[in-house]
Specification:
mainly alpha; single chain
């Protein structure tokens, strides 16, 4: 009963925040962020242990894999455009991947972060089903990596639209590749508001980031 209550409560809260977001499209009101914040507040004020919540919440978490797989549909629908722009797509994803790894390393060294923190940060821009095993393999802390992955996704979903507006980024391919490469699933879900083509490009870059990151991150970790 507790697990069922947690599942229903989370879903109801998410749909409520989705309704509010559609009425007031303020970036900080994106459902995945506002729902998470409200859930944390509710759990803390109600003194409900995290393990108790996850007795039901884990079943929602299990849907992450199928949700990622479902993104294959828009990839299929726009396969001709993907093949047409395959070279700039691959180069863009690789550039985003390496620039992310290098900037995180420099940032961590400047702030004298522990090696375990640095290794946990490296896969932050890769979707969590892939980032967590990578973190574990290279000596990072998987639970900490999960936090960094979520944070990277939220930053992209919240500030991505602002960057689009400020720098006049109007092309679907540019929007999709930038957000998908940096903010994985959470950021890509935001791209649905810009149309199927933008969402497709985000799905492509997220998928390629996971594939390339699986090889590049462990090699990069050996060099630092």
């Amino acid at each position: 009963m507790i697990a069922l209550f947690m599942i229903i409560g989370t879903i109801v809260l998410f749909y409520a925040m989705t309704f509010i977001y559609k009425r007031f499209t303020y970036p900080l009101l994106i459902p995945i962020f506002s729902t998470t914040v409200l859930l944390v507040i509710i759990l803390v004020l109600s003194r409900i242990p995290y393990d108790t919540y996850m007795s039901g919440g884990k079943w929602i978490n299990e849907l992450l894999g199928p949700a990622v797989v479902s993104m294959a549909y828009p990839l299929y629908m726009h396969r001709e455009k993907i093949f047409k722009y395959k070279t700039p797509i691959i180069l863009s994803v690789l550039t985003a991947l390496f620039s992310g790894l290098i900037s995180i390393t420099i940032f961590s060294k400047l702030l004298s972060f522990d090696d375990h923190i640095l290794l946990s940060l490296l896969p932050k821009s890769i979707t969590s089903p892939v980032a967590i095993p990578i973190s574990e393999a290279i000596g990072g802390i998987p639970t900490l990596t999960a936090v960094f992955v979520i944070f990277a996704g939220l930053v992209g979903a919240i500030f991505g639209p602002v960057i689009f507006k400020v720098f006049h980024i109007d092309q679907a391919i540019s929007r999709g590749l930038s957000v998908g490469s940096a903010s994985h699933g959470i950021g890509v879900s935001k791209l649905a508001e810009y149309g199927e083509e933008t969402l497709t490009m985000g799905s492509v870059s997220m998928t390629l980031s996971a594939i390339f990151g699986s090889f590049v991150c462990p090699l990069f970790a050996l060099l630092i």
